[in-house]
Amino acid sequence: FRRAHTLTVLFILTCALGYVTLLEETPQDTAYNTKRGIVASILVFLCFGVTQAKDGPFSRPHPAYWRFWLCVSVVYELFLIFILFQTVQDGRQFMKYIDPHLGVPLPERDYGGNCLIYDPGNETDPFHNVWDKLDGFVPAHFFGWYLKTLMIRDWWMCMIISVMFEFLEYSLEHQLPNFSECWWDHWIMDVILCNGLGIYCGMKTLSWLSLKTYKWQGLWNIPTYKGKMKRIVFQFTPYSWVKFEWKPASSLRRWLAVCGIIFVFLLAELNTFYLKFVLWMPPEHYLVLLRLVFFVNVGGVAMREIYDFMDDPKFHKKLGQQAWLVAAITATEFLIVVKYDPYTLTLSLPFYITQCWILGIILVLTWTAWRFFIRDITLRYKEIRRQKQEHKYEKDKCLSNGDGHSSMLEEQNGNKLRERKL
């Protein structure tokens, strides 16, 4: 049925595109015709993939919705590969084909400078530093972390990623001026207010979803209009609920997987800023917003596939396709940053920053070795020693009856007397 549906959709779409090209006269503009041909090719591929791609773990609002984002992932990865194989100048100028306003170097905004919360020198508005920081990125931080919490479904992992990214901003502000912020902008506005409030609201939403009754009824079987409208709204909620229990300290495999998830999250966050820097895209450009919307949709599927693979490897023997694509996209974006501006990435860290990161890595490696190797060996040795002591105690108790005679010999003599009587 799906194959026939696909052929029908492709046939109708091809006829529609052909009809449009036949009605109008083809303009003598090579750039315009190239863009139009690429868009038409992408539309045909998306129509094919929406009906033929493999279903993911989500079925609401419809499996075709998630198949669409899987195909968008393939298109985006191919676009990144194309950008990767261009020269730096050609890659930046190629962005002009998407938006003529791109391809122009942009000044980076420095959020540091005067960090006084109350500036007595400014009598008209002493809190001007605070109002300057309250731009459109404040609600973006809140909604971003709200959606990330819905993807990760774990308070501790969200807080670790949030705090770690602030440390990364401290460490890399010598490379990107955009990372330079005041201390209260880092920890009060970002971590506590925006990120913390987003994580809190996300956890409350997860709690409501976990308590919700997942008993579905057909739309036409509901008698009232109010029930029908409620059923339509609930179509955009999960079909069933799976609570994520990452348990990173339960095994070395889960610990390495959780560390890998945190690393990919942080790298994807850094790619957002570095891609804007190397491709000369302003932060408020719609392409930046589209990339974030893209990662919100594909990230949720990828996290579910990773959790299923970790939680039940016997049933889910392979990592999901969307998880592999997200990992490939993140790696390709990082390669673009490395190729387009290696000078910025190779700027050496300040000495005290290097010391802090080396100390942190040593602490993590030490804890890993203690938790999964030294601690297990110590516990195993103590258990074996305890079992030997219990066995020796029981043996001594059996061999001695309190007056120096052997209970085993008495038992043997008793058995011999019973045999003689018989």
TrEMBL record:
<dbReference type="InterPro" id="IPR004277">
    <property type="entry name" value="PSS"/>
</dbReference>
<comment type="function">
    <text>Catalyzes a base-exchange reaction in which the polar head group of phosphatidylethanolamine (PE) is replaced by L-serine.</text>
</comment>
<keyword id="KW-0443">Lipid metabolism</keyword>
<keyword id="KW-1208">Phospholipid metabolism</keyword>
<keyword id="KW-0444">Lipid biosynthesis</keyword>
<dbReference type="GO" id="GO:0106245">
    <property type="term" value="F:L-serine-phosphatidylethanolamine phosphatidyltransferase activity"/>
</dbReference>
<feature type="transmembrane region" description="Helical">
    <location>
        <begin position="352"/>
        <end position="373"/>
    </location>
</feature>
<keyword id="KW-1133">Transmembrane helix</keyword>
<dbReference type="Pfam" id="PF03034">
    <property type="entry name" value="PSS"/>
</dbReference>
<comment type="pathway">
    <text>Phospholipid metabolism; phosphatidylserine biosynthesis.</text>
</comment>
<keyword id="KW-0594">Phospholipid biosynthesis</keyword>
<comment type="similarity">
    <text>Belongs to the phosphatidyl serine synthase family.</text>
</comment>
<protein>
    <recommendedName>
        <fullName>Phosphatidylserine synthase</fullName>
        <ecNumber>2.7.8.29</ecNumber>
    </recommendedName>
</protein>
<feature type="transmembrane region" description="Helical">
    <location>
        <begin position="286"/>
        <end position="303"/>
    </location>
</feature>
<feature type="transmembrane region" description="Helical">
    <location>
        <begin position="155"/>
        <end position="172"/>
    </location>
</feature>
<feature type="transmembrane region" description="Helical">
    <location>
        <begin position="323"/>
        <end position="340"/>
    </location>
</feature>
<feature type="transmembrane region" description="Helical">
    <location>
        <begin position="184"/>
        <end position="203"/>
    </location>
</feature>
<keyword id="KW-0808">Transferase</keyword>
<dbReference type="GO" id="GO:0006659">
    <property type="term" value="P:phosphatidylserine biosynthetic process"/>
</dbReference>
<keyword id="KW-0256">Endoplasmic reticulum</keyword>
<feature type="transmembrane region" description="Helical">
    <location>
        <begin position="65"/>
        <end position="85"/>
    </location>
</feature>
<keyword id="KW-0812">Transmembrane</keyword>
<feature type="transmembrane region" description="Helical">
    <location>
        <begin position="36"/>
        <end position="53"/>
    </location>
</feature>
<feature type="transmembrane region" description="Helical">
    <location>
        <begin position="6"/>
        <end position="24"/>
    </location>
</feature>
<feature type="region of interest" description="Disordered">
    <location>
        <begin position="395"/>
        <end position="422"/>
    </location>
</feature>
<comment type="pathway">
    <text>Lipid metabolism.</text>
</comment>
<keyword id="KW-0472">Membrane</keyword>
<feature type="transmembrane region" description="Helical">
    <location>
        <begin position="255"/>
        <end position="274"/>
    </location>
</feature>
<dbReference type="GO" id="GO:0005789">
    <property type="term" value="C:endoplasmic reticulum membrane"/>
</dbReference>
